[in-house]
């Protein structure tokens, strides 16, 4: 008898059977290209993966622009399901899917530098920002996509923490819900602001997601390399606004002296 095939973590068949529809939704989304995919993973496997996630204690490197946010870059070591998810996300099969959806030749960073498991605890928030554009090690890899898989069991809008996106050119914005097993594919560009407001999760529940990034290889750099650009709220303190204004210079100076934590995948 032929051995039964083991289903992958990602629902590849669904994605491959709906490529044209997914591409159209991505390219025509407002305020800038993005895509919501529900039931992205096989439900039972993702539930097992969720149970393997401990409370994290490694605080985010986002300094004063994120509150009570914790990270684990090497999340695949937490259990077999998360390792399988990591492998599926960095597979050639998935690269073909996201390349078709975006109409660009792109690929997921196999080492997931700067990405990983993110956990927002009580009163967590993340100020609006633009992500770094060129890879910290492979200097001609241009960041095209954020791939954000949400693991928020029984999430409700009143828990807050929805993904806020805003086009820096027009000011048009949207807020996207973040329930369990939802993948949000979000374009990265010099105008794709994103973040989330302060959360209101029940005691013992955390805003949980896995962040993965996809790139395109550039023969010539089309932008000046940057780290993260922060856009605090209007009512933020003077010091916070000044820190945001000088953040790129300060981080680049620190990286020259001590090296980049993102490049080290820390």
Report a brief summary of the structure.
With 266 residues, the chain is of the alpha+beta class. Helices cover 25% and strands 27% of the residues.
Instruction: Please identify the top-level CATH class.
Output: Mainly Beta
Q: How many strands? A: 11
Task: Kindly identify the CATH topology.
Answer: Jelly Rolls
Low-confidence stretches: 249-266
Query: Could you say which overall geometry the principal axes of the C-alpha atoms support?
Result: globular
Percent in helix: 25-40%
Task: Give the N-terminus to C-terminus distance in angstroms.
Answer: 47 Å
Radius of gyration: 18 Å
**Total domains, how many?**
1
Share of residues in strands: 25-35%
Could you say which structural class the secondary elements and strand pairing correspond to? alpha+beta
Describe this structure in words.
With 266 residues, the protein is an alpha+beta fold. The protein has one domain: Jelly Rolls, CATH 2.60.120. Strands 1, 2, 3, 4, 5, 6, 7, 8, 9, 10 and 11 form an eleven-stranded antiparallel beta sheet that branches. The chain is globular, with a radius of gyration of 18 Å. The N and C termini lie far apart (47 Å). The C terminus is likely disordered.
Task: Compile the SSE list and pairings.
Elements: H1 12-17, H2 19-28, E1 34-38, H3 43-51, E2 66-72, H4 80-89, H5 92-102, E3 107-108, E4 116-130, E5 141-150, E6 163-167, E7 173-176, E8 182-187, E9 192-196, E10 207-217, E11 229-231, H6 238-258
Antiparallel strand pairs: 1-8, 2-4, 3-10, 4-9, 4-10, 4-11, 5-8, 5-10, 6-7, 6-9
């Amino acid at each position: 008898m032929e051995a039964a095939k083991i289903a992958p973590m990602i629902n590849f068949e669904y994605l491959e059977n709906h490529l044209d529809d997914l591409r159209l939704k991505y390219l025509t989304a407002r305020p800038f290209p993005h895509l919501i995919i529900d039931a992205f993973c096989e439900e039972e496997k993702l539930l097992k993966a969720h149970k393997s996630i401990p409370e994290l204690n490694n605080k985010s490197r986002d300094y004063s622009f994120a509150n009570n946010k914790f990270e684990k870059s090497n999340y695949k070591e937490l259990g077999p399901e998360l390792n399988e998810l990591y492998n599926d996300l960095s597979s050639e099969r998935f690269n073909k899917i996201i390349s078709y959806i975006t109409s660009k030749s792109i690929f997921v960073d196999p080492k997931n530098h700067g990405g990983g498991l993110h956990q927002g605890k009580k009163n967590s928030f993340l100020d609006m920002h633009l992500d770094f554009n060129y890879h910290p090690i492979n200097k001609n890899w241009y960041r095209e996509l954020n791939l954000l898989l949400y693991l928020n069991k029984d999430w409700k809008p009143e828990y807050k923490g929805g993904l806020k996106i805003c086009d820096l050119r027009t000011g048009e914005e949207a807020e996207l819900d973040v329930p369990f097993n939802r993948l949000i594919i979000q374009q990265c560009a010099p105008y794709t602001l994103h973040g989330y407001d302060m959360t209101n999760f029940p005691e013992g529940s955390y805003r949980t997601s896995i962040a993965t990034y996809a790139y395109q290889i550039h023969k010539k750099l089309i932008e000046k390399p940057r780290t993260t650009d922060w856009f605090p709220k209007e009512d933020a303190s003077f010091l916070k606004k000044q820190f945001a204004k000088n953040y790129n210079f300060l981080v680049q100076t620190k990286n020259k002296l001590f090296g980049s934590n993102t490049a080290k995948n820390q």
